[in-house]
Design goal:
17 strands, six-stranded antiparallel beta sheet, single chain, 2 helices, globular, mainly beta, three-stranded antiparallel beta sheet, Jelly Rolls, 2 domains
């Protein structure tokens, strides 16, 4: 009985569209050759993949589509999943009376599942949140201005281009310093249900960045905090990208 089993090859192109290619009998998937998949695209067939004359192969061409960006009250947000390019000057911003402003670069409709990333703007004396530690790696780069890093009970002054590596469970928070706004690029690994804790820290409390009662729950830690507003920070014209982006006429 003829063997009609199917070999599946994942092409190094991207996500969402499937194209099928039936091979000619009498040979396998050539060694390192390219096989057309329709609409003028080609995919590379790996040299190690062999399919005899009784087999067919489905080449799965994964095509990542471009996300659709839509405006909200303060800028553009991704409305669909996919790749996109946006200037920070055109992106959506959130502002908070206590914890500064941030450009989130994602939305509830298109969340980043593996890596959190945002740009935070802090005025002198403004923390970016409450002193805490969490069970994932984070990394931070100061892009402009100055801030204080409160870390494991110590205080360090950081300036533009200083980098802070924050391993899992490191207690930390930033507080704006100097004479003007501080801009921080913040990244962190995403993992649902990751443990996070807010310890009592006298150092953090002196800077208005600590809890008075230890808690493992963000909702409890921020219960008394005002809501964020969807708007640009008031110091927009002092920021490095103020004259960049399509919104500014670039």
């Amino acid at each position: 009985m003829e063997d009609k089993s199917v070999g599946v090859v994942q092409a190094p192109v991207a996500l969402l569209h499937l194209e099928h290619v039936e091979l000619e009998s009498g040979g396998g998937l050539g060694h390192g050759r390219r096989t057309p998949v329709g609409d003028d695209r080609e995919v590379h067939v790996p040299p190690h993949v062999e399919v005899d004359s009784f087999h067919r192969a489905i080449i799965v061409a994964l095509v990542v589509e471009e996300a659709r960006l839509e405006p909200n009250e303060s800028g553009l947000v991704p409305a669909t999943e996919g790749w996109f390019v946006v200037n920070v000057a055109d992106a959506s911003w959130f502002d908070h009376d206590v914890f500064g402003a941030s450009c989130e670069l994602e939305s509830s409709a298109a969340e980043f599942t593996e890596l959190g990333i945002r740009i935070c703007v802090l005025q002198p004396g403004q923390p970016n949140g409450l002193y805490h530690g969490e069970e994932t790696q984070e990394d931070f780069l100061i892009l402009a201005g100055e801030c204080l890093l409160l870390v494991e009970g110590e205080e360090r002054r950081l300036r533009a281009w200083d980098f802070f590596h924050c391993p899992s469970m490191t207690e930390h928070i930033f507080v704006g310093a100097g004479e003007g706004p501080c801009v921080v690029l913040m990244t962190g690994t995403r993992r649902r249900g990751r443990p996070i804790f807010y310890p009592v820290s006298e150092l953090a409390l002196r800077h208005g960045a600590g809890v008075e009662t230890e808690t493992p729950t963000p909702r409890e830690a921020y219960a008394a905090s005002p809501q964020v507003r969807v708007e640009r920070p008031a110091v927009w014209e002092q920021l490095p990208w103020a004259n960049a982006g399509n919104a500014a006429g670039a």
